[in-house]
Design brief:
By secondary structure, this protein is an all-alpha fold. The chain contains two helices and no strands. It has one domain. The radius of gyration is 20 Å and the shape is elongated. It comes from Mobilicoccus pelagius NBRC 104925.
Length: about 70
């Protein structure tokens, strides 16, 4: 019985590690894209950069509030 539990645990750990790797890769790609976009806009139009950053912060805050309220309802 113990060996079976160990086998299941090892399989879950492998999947979890793969998911963490994919998440880290996606996060890294978007960090590079965001930095390149910010650099491009900094050279072209500072007001556009400020507006884009402000908009992204508003969207992030809305998503956070939505997530927090959904968890509170559980």
């Amino acid at each position: 019985m113990f060996a079976a539990v160990q086998g299941v645990f090892a399989a879950v750990q492998g999947v979890f590690a793969a998911v963490q790797g994919v998440f880290a890769a996606v996060q890294g790609v978007f960090a590079l894209v965001g930095g390149a976009t910010a650099g491009f806009l900094l050279d072209r139009s500072v007001p556009t950069l400020v507006a884009l950053v402000a908009l992204s912060q508003v969207v992030a805050a809305a998503l956070l509030l939505r997530t927090m309220s959904a968890r509170a309802r559980r």
